[in-house]
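Thread title: Can someone regenerate the structure for this chain?

I was given the following input by a collaborator and told the matching structure tokens would be attached. They weren't. Posting the sequence so someone can regenerate them.
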Amino acid sequence: MSNGENAFTVLSKSIGNAEGAGEWFLVDQARINAFAEVTEDRQFIHVDPEMSAQLSPWGVPIAHGFLTLSLLTHLLGSVPQDPKTLEGILMGVNYGFEKVRFINPVKVGAKIRALSTIANVEQKDANTLHVTRAITVEIEGETKPALIAEWVTRLVYG
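Best answer:
Regenerated them for you:
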């Protein structure tokens, strides 16, 4: 049995089970400003604390939704993984998203973390899997999450 087939067996048994929660991560104004520069999205609701205090419904700057989305790789890095699914892995690449929804803004100074559940596993060939994770990004102290997403990753085993 190949490494990909072993991983498929292990991951398939995990469908519907939570992988766990990652570590909290601070979203500060410096990170929001840096993202604004890279993406050329400098709306006041992200980068101007004074205007946000006056005009924004949140009263403070908020992170770009795409900033929160772009942090998924980092946030998922601290979610516990079954080592059996990593045996023989050569690479993992983004395949895409089935769904992304921005539910609640991330206010400057908030901490976020990812919760992950294996939603689906498809074996493309003996050494290639598509793994879909249902991701929820929580905001510390908030009842509604920042975002929910169904993220598909292609895993290639040797």
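The chain is about 30% helix and 40% strand.
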